Write the structure tokens for this entry.
Amino acid sequence: MPNVKSLLWVFLMVVIGGIAFAQNQPQPTGWVVEDDSVGVVQPPAIVAPQAQPATPAPPPKWAVAAMLSLDPKYAGGIVDVSASGGTPEPKQWIILARDTADQGVLHRITVAEGQVISDVPSVNLVESMRQRVVIAPQSVQVDSGDAYLVVEPIAAASGKIIGHVDYSLHQEASDAGSVWTLNCFDLDGVYIGKVNLLASTGNVLSSSGFKSVQGN
């Protein structure tokens, strides 16, 4: 019979052989974790609506701001907008508008810095009786300051420098657009020319006192 030492030796050899065998086997490169989220419905992400950029307000000294400053009773009743001494902004605007809440009585309204400073019924009988086409502020895409920027290079092309301008915004027919008329004066206050242009596009309709201008 084998003795105890022989049995221990055999047992030791078996253990050593098992360790060597285990070390020679390929080792796993990483653990695989099963995804237990299969079948779980995720709530949709809530995306906050982006705020639309606000429409910029017109410059307070320009014509459109003056038109928008009027009492709502004059909405749909503006028939003439004018100013003198614009450099390019005038000190005040004179607006003729019919009071839609009072039988269309014509009022003469003075606006400065975007604020109404005077509002009186027109005492000019001819002015009151004259039939004029209403000017919608939203149709005036070319504001007074923009009109000045159209006219200034026209004068420069004729070798003239504008000192100030007188503005007039009017509409002659319901199927025609509003028209800016800018009467131009030099630095000494001497009249040097006039330009008519569309208030919707800025296209030059006609001019006098300056070199021939092609409509743009």
